[in-house]
TrEMBL record:
Record-linked InterPro entries: cNMP-bd_CS, cNMP-bd_dom, cNMP-bd_dom_sf, RmlC-like_jellyroll
Gene3D superfamilies in the cross-refs: Jelly Rolls
Domain of life: Eukaryota
Stored CDD domains: CAP_ED
SUPFAM superfamilies noted in UniProt: cAMP-binding domain-like
Cyclic nucleotide-binding domain segment(s): 19-117
The protein, known as: Cyclic nucleotide-binding domain-containing protein
Organism this protein belongs to: Aureococcus anophagefferens
Length: 117
């Protein structure tokens, strides 16, 4: 729905995300024009460790939990927290499994668009 996308775009810009600091206005415009909105329920797996990364994710609301086989356990629950960039930039498999720990709304940028930023 276009209305929801416009509201989330406004929220993203209002968050003053550090990832926007180094972006030119054209890159920010691309970011806000290509994102998808994904929602997840508690326990839903967003990213599975070892799989190829397909998206860059920004948390709009809710919470996600990061767990890896190497013992990393982190909870992200702040608007604007993001993940997925390392596997896209390095073309490496995802280093952790990330699942919603509460209802979560994420802005997702497809990998091919993220690389253009």
């Amino acid at each position: 729905d276009e209305y929801i996308k416009e509201r989330i775009t406004a929220q993203l810009l209002a968050m003053n995300l550090t990832l926007f600091d180094a972006m030119r206005p054209a890159a920010i415009a691309l970011f806000t024009s290509v994102f998808e909105i994904h929602t997840y329920g508690p326990g839903d797996v967003i990213v599975k460790e070892g799989q190829a990364g397909d998206f860059f994710y920004v948390l709009v609301n809710g919470a996600v939990k990061i767990d890896s086989e190497t013992g990393i356990h982190v909870e992200l629950n702040t608007k604007g927290d993001y993940f997925g960039e390392m596997s896209l930039l390095r073309s490496d498999p995802c280093a952790a499994t990330i699942a919603a720990s509460a209802d979560a709304t994420l802005v997702c940028i497809p990998g091919e668009n993220f690389k253009q930023l």
